[in-house]
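Hi Y.,

Following your request, here is the sequence exactly as I used it, all 125 residues.
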Amino acid sequence: MLNKYISDLDELREILVKEDKEYLLLSELPAARAFLQVEGYFMGKQVVWNMCVLTMDEYAVSHKVTDDPQQFIDIQNQNNTYFINIGLNLKQIDLAAIERTIIMVRKYKRLCLGRHQYGARSKTQ
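Below is the corresponding structure, written out as tokens. Let me know if you'd prefer a different format.
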């Protein structure tokens, strides 16, 4: 779980330089849910993503889902702090999944606030 949400880009950069990392992983892996903080772009400006990546099975523990749920990205902004929750059709979240997710978020140019679903489970496993 996140100890502190970061919104200040300079603060995150300072931590990353000190720890010699490209992102700040706040969870043990492998896991059903992982938390991290990473630099990225949103609507043309640099932001800190306070990110939660979870399996669809983990998401289904606390949310109603269909038999063939879709993966999702949910982006929220609370007081200039950006939160991005990403549900993936994986059995577990590991380092490779985290790094692929970071790449996906950084490359996707049309991110916008709210929840967006994509791909059915049966097509992604």
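Residues 53 and 86 are 5 Å apart (CA to CA).

Thanks again,
Q.
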